[in-house]
Amino acid sequence: MKEWIFSSVDALLPTFVSAVLLYFLVILYTRIFGLRSFSKMSSFDFAMTVAVGTMLASAIVNKSPSVVQSGIALLSLYLLQSIIALLRQRVSWFNESVDNQPILLMDGSKILSKNLKKAQLTEDDLRSKLREANVWNYSQVKAVVFETTGDVSVLHTSQDTELDPDILQGVRGVSHLQ
Known about the structure:
The protein is of the alpha+beta class. The protein has seven helices and four strands, in the order H-H-H-H-H-E-E-H-H-E-E. It has a four-stranded antiparallel β-sheet with strand order 2-1-3-4. The longest helix is centred in the first third of the chain and has 25 residues, at 9-33. The chain is elongated.
């Protein structure tokens, strides 16, 4: 029980040094590869963020992998994300085959139940996101989109402003929009 709560003094210094070195390595890699490293623009970006966090935690509290191995593994992840981002920009079939497509959940005040099912969301989930977006009444909603990252975008306004169709380009179910 004592080992579970306390560590030997010998284990504390390597843990601290690993944390500091890897922390600065992540900062360096992020400066080199750009802020995209921690964005949630695509499912790959989200996977990158989770992988980096998991790798850091593992490398900091365990003796294996070493700090150097962890640094190489982190570099590999950053490189892979950069390659995927480049391919997504330049090769349309690659982008279409690897990215999820956003899906329309609400057309104005109308809830699109079939699309909710496709997105594996409930109406309670949707109402929660509407509340987060400060929607007081369904009539305020222009559209609700389940994004490729898992975020829900609520497009709303209290004015009678037209929604630019280009904003919803590439969203499944947009043909429902009036």
